[in-house]
Amino acid sequence: MLPGQDFSDIHIEKVAAGNRFTEGPVWSREGYLIFSDVPNNRMNKFVPGQGVAGFRVNTNGANGNAFDAQGRLYTCESRTRRVVRTKKDGTLEVIAEKYEGKRFNAPNDIVVRKDGHVWFTDPAFGEQADHRELDFHGIFHITPKGELDLVAKPKGRPNGVALSPNGRVLYVSNSDERGVYAYDVDGRGRASNERLLITKTDGPPDGLRADEKGNLYVACNELSIYSPEGKLVHKIQFPEQPRNCAFGDPDFETLYVTAMTSVYRVRLPVKGAVQY
After folding, report:
1. Whether pTM exceeds 0.70
2. Which side of the chain, N or C, has fewer Cβ within a 10 Å radius?
3. pLDDT one-digit tens code per residue, 113-126
């Protein structure tokens, strides 16, 4: 149990159903949740009190999503193997699609820091591996000026990505190694001090988020909660296997969880870390 937090009376509520594979949840400051339904090639919008509506179709296999401080939406397109940004006027622009002249594998998850620095993972799962141009799975960084650099070439496939509350630590889950790595990131977005923070997760870890106290919420066979030091302190079981999560609602004390065909939410006694 985390000090000062009581998870003994958690109510799990299903807010969306009938999807094929939900991913990429992100809360908009305008009061709604965006999430991807990857195989159905669409993104949906959940508005509390109103329900689910379509947000975008023909999304090129949209997976991970993130907002920046300006309210622009960043999306990992797995089929076109690129990262795009949607401006406030709805205009779509490509911000990354190649590294050293070679196309990415399949950008998976993404996070944007308050100052505009972006990090995303680029693994290759299943048939994605049949069309690879890069000979490694990567973690990449994009500066606010649009410059791309490589953070790491993990041995296993990197998956989820998140930042600490102060934006100085980058967390990346590794599905093959069943762990979560941490990197120190400076004001220029440069990463150093790679370390394995969490080991032996219960199932391959996918998406993850941090709360305001620095605790990590990792989607694996269940939703596992870890202290900032990487110690397992609690688990939350869902009717379906969690794939990703994001804090939301006006007070940022609701955790939305994308889990296979559905999206669930739970109220928590702590706020999520805000990066935008």
Report:
1. yes
2. N
3. 999 999 999 999 98
